[in-house]
Each structure stands twice: as C-alpha cells, then as structure tokens.
Amino acid sequence: MPQGRDFGGYTDGPTEKCGVVGISLDDRNAARPLYYSLYALQHRGQESAGIVTHDGFQQHSHVEMGLVGDAFSENDLDSLNGATGIGHVRYPTAGSVNSCCAQPFSVSFKSGSLGLSHNGNLVNADEIREELENLGHAFTSDGDTEVIAHDIARNLLDEDLIRAVKRTMERIHGSYSLAIMHDDVVIGVRDPQGNRPLCIGELEDGYVLASESAVIDTLDGELIRDVRPGELVVLERGGAGYDSYQLVQEENTAHCFFEHVYFARPDSIIDEKLVYEVRRELGRQLWEESGVESDVVMPVPDSGRAFASGYADAANETTATGEPREEDDTGVEFAEGLMKNRYVGRTFIMPTQDERERAVRLKLNPIKSTIEGKTVTIIDDSIVRGTTSMQLVSLLKDAGAEEVHMRIGAPPIIAPCYMGIDMATRDELIAANKSVAEICETIEADSLAYLSIDAVASALERSRADLCLGCVTGEYPYDIDGETTDRDVSRPDIGTQEPVTADD
Ligand code: SF4
User: Fold this and answer.
1) 237, 297, 438, 491: least surrounded by Cβ within 10 Å?
2) Same domain for 310 and 249?
3) C-alpha separations of 374 from 77, 99, 377, 431, 469 in Å
4) Is 220 contained in some domain?
5) Distance of CA 293 to the CA centre of its chain
6) pLDDT tens-digit series, residues 325-337
7) 42-88 tens-digit pLDDT
8) Based on the structure, what is the number of domains in the chain?
9) Which residue out of 17, 421, 456 has the highest number of ligand 1 atoms within 8 Å of its CB and is therefore the one to mutate?
10) Does residue 364 sit in the same domain as residue 450?
11) Minimal-distance CA residue to ligand 1 atom 8
C-alpha cells in the first residue's frame, strides 16, 4: 500500500490535510470562482476536491478523488448552479485513500440541506458520534466532519442557524475552520483558539471565506481580515455583505505556528502577517542564533527558500559572532545549488523505505559548480523522519562540498499533531528519539542547528501562550487522551442531549 506521496515537494515533511472556501455572489454562479479557489488551495490537499452549491431551491454537489484539475470537467462546473457555494480540498491520512471522507460533506434533512467543509481535527468526535448513534443517527463515514454536520442538523430542528452552530461549538473540542452552507446561506466558523486559519475577502460582486488569502488574490478580491477565533461569519445572500457573531471568546489563542513555517503559501497573509516575510524573519533569527560561516548558503527547494534568503541577508550584515562585516569581507554567497525536477511529484508513490530514500535523487540534482570545493550551509524548514536530510547531505558531499552545515527554520518536531496535520508518529520522528547532536551524526552533517521556540514566537510577534506548540513541546492546547496540555482546557461533557423524535 502506498505510504507516502507529495505534491511538487520531495520531502518527508508534515502534510496539511485540508483547505476550505465559501462564496456568496450577486447573480452569477459561484462554481467557477470556487473552482479557481480550490486551485489556489491545492497545496493544502491533493487527495480529493469538491464543490457544493445552492441555487435557492436545491443543492448541487460534485466531489471527486484527485487533483482539482482532474476532478472537474466543464460539464461538472456547468451543473453546479447557484450564486452561493462551498469547496474543499483534502489530503489523505497516512496510508489511506478514502472516497467516503472526501468533502464537502452534504446532507439533506428535515430543516433543509447542509454542506460542510472542515479544516482541522476534533479530538472528541468519537464521543459525540457515539451519543448521536445512540440517538438514531446513521453515519456514512468515519470522519469528524460528518459528526459536526449531524450535530448541527440536529440542533437546527429547534434552533436558528446561529444558535445551532453555537450549540455545536459548545460540544466539539479541537481544531476547526469550517465553511458551512445551510440551504443558500454560507457561513464560516473558526474554533475558539483559532488553530487553523480562515479569512474573509471582498470580491467585486460578493464575499469569500477561505483558508488562505491567496484565494482572494486569485479572485481579484481584497482581503478584509482573518475570521476571529470563536467567530461565526454569515455571508449575506446576493453577496451584499457579511455579519459577524462572536460566539465564544477564549483568553488565549492557539494558532498553529507550522502554518507560517511550512503549510501556507508564502504569498498568503495569515493572522495579519505575510507568510513569506515571517519565513525570512525566521531565517534571520536562525543566523543570529546559530549562524555558521560558510562559502555558500542554499535553500532546500522550495521549502527552505524564504528562510535561506533571510539567513543569507543577515549573514551578510553581521558575522556569526554578531560583529558587523568589514568592508573587505565578502560575506556569504546565496545560491541555488539544488535543482528540482518538477515533473516527479504529485503522484510519486514510494512503497518501501528503500524507494523513499531514492526519492531525493529522483527529485533533486545538485549544481556542482556552486558546491564543489565549498563549505555549504543548507537551509530547510523542518526535519521529520530525517531520511531526506540524510540524503541531502550525502547528495551535497557527493557533489564535492567540503563541509555541509544544516540549519532548520523551526524547533525539533518531537511529538505528533492531533489537530489535522499528518506529522508521523513518535516512533518515526527522529527528534523524538535523538538529541540534536545524535541527529547531526545520523544525517552525517558537519553541524546541525534548529531555531528556538522563542525565536518563532518573536518572528510571529505572539506570546508562546497564544500559539499551538504541541509538536515541538509535546504539550497541547486541547484536552487529548494520553497527552498533557499547556493550558487550562478540558473537553465538554457529552451525552447531555435529549433524544428527539424528528427524522433528522
Ligand atoms: S501540533 Fe504542531 S502542526 Fe499541529 S496544530 Fe500544533 S503547531 Fe500545528
């Protein structure tokens, strides 16, 4: 069974599982802008793509396995009528390719129709599912999105949409950014700790909610702002405006710092920060914390590029000991020393460890003239299993590098993610089982350094208390079975709903 795939990259890095979008327009079909939006979010999920629209009378849905470009034909888009709609791209969990979990999830029930796109992961979905099953709900998938849909549908039997969602928010625990469509009304919801991103934009003839602002750029719109943690945003029918309801307010947020480091597009603005500039700043801080003098600084393409550019800039201003460079000091050269084969990528399947190790050679080729006889610092954003780093060091040494120093623009990943990122298990995570010195020895680099957690918080201009740092501290902002928390959180009591007799 395939155990790994990637999209355009080559690393064994963590993978985002989903991207969501919702649109309300004046009087043109939302299908095409949704389709373009999903293209803009393709990096967040490549297993399946889907769009659900509503024309004021009925829902239309097309959800397909595969990339956006393969999932929709002209006829499919033409059949998706209606000026409101939601969309979704999904990445599979490790080893699974499962059509029943493709989204948006849609369901018709007594109070109308519901469509749901979810980015994130609930940690108490099983408890709610069990309770709803006991109340007679039948589930078609094992995903947590269907649990949210059933819970909202149930609440809609005796509440309006806003109260129904609020009631569900009081029961679900975990990470969620949602684009929901109830009949022809689109709403967006971000979990009370704002773990996954969601933003609002204005289009010429309507409004859009999306995981990343790059979607809004793609549609020639203007970013308005992030959806606030715990906020529900309703896009008015006819694209006339939007209403905001702050349903829950927590003292601290738990933004996923990895969005800025790794997942999001560099051209997206998340939590008011351009991701590209954050990565450059992380690179600068990496130089300040652990800079090493070398002839050449090069990125691991494409993931390390912004970090390496910030690192090289800082390296040309001060020496590794923090002294200003003398005029005759030529500093370091910033160069692309590894060329990526862009045509090995998205469907590359690596069934065995041996073949996974071969992947780097297939995807990257060193430019010998920038490497041979030189001391090289190579910059990447993360190390997960270490396999790729080992291959990279060997690739550079085979190309004639005299020394290879590796610098990583994030802290060591020591624990898995339960919030919707496919990060690998503790057994697989090299930093969960080895010290930095041992990792350096394993990957056969001349030196290795990671960025500190404080530097990440400083680059994001957030306190540590407002970030999710679960994968680098092993302490999570949610109440997760068998794990410790970094704040005062606990799961809601489930099992308090009365049975209803209506057919929902
Ligand atoms: S555990 Fe890591 S990857 Fe997961 S949400 Fe937290 S910061 Fe992001």
Assistant:
1) 438
2) no
3) 53, 49, 10, 28, 36
4) yes
5) 33
6) 988 888 899 999 9
7) 999 988 999 999 999 999 999 999 999 999 999 999 999 999 999 99
8) 2
9) 421
10) yes
11) 256
